[in-house]
Design a protein that fits this description.
single chain; alpha+beta; 2 domains; two-stranded parallel ribbon
Length: 101
């Protein structure tokens, strides 16, 4: 329903374009400068999605000090929609383990 609103599809496409063009430059500069995210980071990706073949956790370790990476089974790109209970469980466990909750 949200995607049927005028301008929404175009906005999403432009958001993705900016991520493809600008985000890699930002993250590479961060890594090159030795700067790192200092708060704990949870990275979830789908075991069958476009990130499945990448070393996602290792990539994030270049820019973050403390990374917990999990490939979510039976999920592709939209992990939170395809495996909502599993995703929520990982987030809650991460928050508890990091004393966030």
């Amino acid at each position: 329903e949200q995607f049927s609103k005028k301008g929404t599809p175009e906005a999403v496409v432009w958001d993705y374009r900016s991520m493809l063009e600008e985000d890699p430059i930002y993250w590479q500069e961060l890594a090159d400068n030795g700067s790192k995210i200092v708060v704990p980071v949870l990275v979830l990706w789908g075991s069958t999605g476009p990130s499945a073949r990448l070393e996602v956790e290792q990539l994030w370790r270049k820019v973050a000090e403390k990374v917990k990476g999990i490939a979510v089974d039976s999920a592709a790109h939209y992990v939170h929609e395809q495996q909502p209970e599993v995703t929520a469980g990982h987030i809650l466990n991460f928050a508890k383990n990091e004393n966030i909750l």
